[in-house]
């Protein structure tokens, strides 16, 4: 099953200025290894944090890279980072996020399940809300979400594409969405970011 690696980090000046160009050597390295399906990079609007998403055919394909001699120095990722602080998650998504990642703005929700809430509770809330959002003009027709391998009982990611951040807020700011949004917030604690991703390979 495909898995998506999400890397969050303090971006170097080079990456902040030119995400695609700075990421290209590493993306080309990954593309020549077995199992890499695509590499995207971008900067979060809200906090200027760098984000990289790498799609793998399976987790085992990525594990083989991590187990190889010289990793991570061989990857070419060093120029994108400012310092050593970064987080990495691996997420099995319900759908391909390619459409959401290809939109001018990608909404990423990092969600933590609240006490006594389950994946089924969250799935129900997301199904109701996203069925409406994906029917709106300016929103991607599909969305993708899933739990992380690192913290499967708590940490969940969602990808949804928009023509702009302004359009996203204009839609969800409508009173008709209030109940569905409150329902989602009753299931999870949420951190929301907007990122303009570049597909490098």
Give a quick precis of the structure.
The chain is an alpha+beta fold and about 200 residues long. Helix content is about 30%, strand content about 35%. The chain has 2 domains: about 5-90, Alpha-Beta Plaits (2-Layer Sandwich), CATH 3.30.70.100; about 100-200, 2-Layer Sandwich (Alpha-Beta Plaits).
Q: Strands, helices and their partners?
A:
Layout (H helix, E strand, L loop, with lengths): L2 E9 L1 H5 L1 H13 L4 E8 L5 E8 L2 H9 L13 E11 L6 H5 L2 E9 L5 H15 L5 E9 L7 E8 L2 H8 L5 H8 L2 E8 L2 E2 L2
Protein name: ABM domain-containing protein
Number of helices: 7
Please identify, by name, the CATH architecture of the largest domain: 2-Layer Sandwich
Total beta strands: 9
| SSE pattern | EHHEEHEHEHEEHHEE
CATH topology call of the largest domain: Alpha-Beta Plaits
| Largest sheet properties | 5 strands, antiparallel
Class of secondary structure makeup: alpha+beta
CATH class of the largest domain: Alpha Beta
Low-confidence segments, ≥5 residues, pLDDT <50? none
Q: What share of residues are in beta strands?
A: 35-45%
Radius of gyration: 17 Å
State mean pLDDT (0 to 100 scale).
95
Distance between the termini: 20 Å
């Amino acid at each position: 099953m495909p898995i998506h690696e999400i890397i969050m980090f303090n971006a170097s000046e080079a990456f902040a200025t030119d995400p695609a160009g700075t990421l290209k050597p590493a993306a080309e390295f990954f593309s020549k290894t077995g199992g890499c399906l695509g590499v995207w990079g971008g900067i979060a609007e809200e906090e200027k944090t760098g984000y990289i998403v790498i799609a793998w055919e399976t987790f085992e394909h990525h594990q083989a890279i991590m187990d190889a001699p010289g990793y991570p120095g061989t990857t070419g990722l060093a120029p994108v980072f400012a310092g050593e602080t970064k987080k990495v998650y691996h997420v099995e998504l319900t759908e391909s996020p390619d459409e959401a990642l290809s939109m001018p703005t990608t909404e990423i929700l990092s969600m933590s399940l609240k006490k006594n809430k389950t994946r089924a509770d969250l799935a129900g809330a997301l199904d109701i809300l996203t069925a409406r959002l994906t029917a709106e003009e300016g929103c991607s027709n599909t969305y993708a979400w899933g739990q992380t391998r690192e913290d499967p009982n708590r940490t969940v990611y969602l990808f949804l594409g928009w023509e702009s951040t302004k359009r996203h807020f204009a839609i969800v700011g409508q009173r008709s969405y209030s109940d569905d949004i409150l329902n989602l917030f009753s299931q999870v604690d949420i951190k929301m970011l907007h990122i303009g991703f570049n597909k490098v390979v």
